[in-house]
Structure formats: C-alpha cells, structure tokens
Structure prediction request, 221 residues.
Amino acid sequence: MAEYTVEIQKLVNAALEEIHAEHQAKKLVNAPVANNNFMIRWVTKALKGQRFHRCVVDDLTGWQKAGRTKGNASNLMFTFERISSFYKDFFPEDQDTQAIKDRDIDAFIDAMEESGWEVTTSEPLVGVGKVQIFTEGPNSLALCTEQCDNCFDGELLVKPMSWFVRGNHAEFVDAAAKAGFMVHKVTDYKSNVKYHGEYLVFPDNKGTQLAEIPINYQVAK
Prediction:
C-alpha cells in the first residue's frame, strides 16, 4: 500500500531533479519566471501521464490551478523545495521513523502552556456535535479527552488525533514542527469546536495529505 509521505517526496524530488538537469544542460535559464513556467508544464504533464500515485493527484491538481490563476506568483519551485526539505527533515533516509508517544504530546502541551497558550484536554470534542470552549486568552489548543485515551496503544499513538486551534495558527504550526509533529490542516476556522480550526496528527507523522510547513521554515541547502 502506497504511503503519502513517500509518494509526495517522489513527486517533488522528481520535479526538482529534472529542472536541475535542465539547468545543468543549459537548456533552461535558472530564473524565477523560466523555472515557474517549467514547473507548471511539468505538473500538467505529470497529471496527464498519470505519472504518480493517485494519493498525490489532488496536490498536482491544486498546483496546476495555482499555476493557471496566479502565474509567476505561484512560485512552484519554491513550494517543491520547501516540501522536499521539510519531509526529508522528518523522514531521513538513513534513520528509522520516529514514533509519536504520549509523553511527546504531554511535553508539547506543557511547552504551549508555558508560552501562554490555554490548553484544554478535559472535554469530549470529537463525534459529539458542536462544542464551545470558553477561554480567556487569544490562543488556545484543545484535545479531545477521549482521544487522549483511545488513540493510543500503550504509549504509542496508533490513530490520527484531532488538535483544535484558535488564535495564532502560524505560531502553533511552527511550535508543533519544532516539537517533532507534522500537523495536517482540516479547517482554518469552522470545525465542530466553535472558533477553532482543526488539524490532524498521524501516527509516526505519516499523514495522508500535505502537512503544514511553518512560514519561517528555512530550506536546507
């Protein structure tokens, strides 16, 4: 069975390898406009040729639409470089996948509270309809109390877990990445927890959709 984390890396790395080959062969000038036009054509060909696994087709379709509507502003080469570098950080070729453990999440919760976030883990939030949480500060993180039990087998996370966020989403994504979590956006705002967006954390960080990459993430050279 194909894994999204593997297939998305195959896709972006293939694109980057091919554009770098064009640069080295002096067939393509290494400039923003030329690079973006190449990537837009590359994405379209990949879609038409069904070159990659179906689990990344939605990503390709989104990039194709971005290329058509935003033109040079879509900056697909930069996007691919960020994805390639970010996923390589989390899934190095020479290392085993790092499991997510309950103590990792506990440590992250503690760190978020220390940085001023209000964290709630005492209420059922998933599968119970609309829920409203009352918090005083601008930033809050909520985890379903039932998921805090049933998403684990012993100390290991074995089922996707929903994390609900209100306030500074960029800060949350950055903090999560630094703590070793890939977070996958479900919604920015309108989740079943009022005023909160929803993100998914998957076992071993092996999500089934593109992870959120921190705004200030620096691509490894």
The helical segments are 4-24, 32-48, 57-70, 76-90, 102-114, 147-150, 169-178.
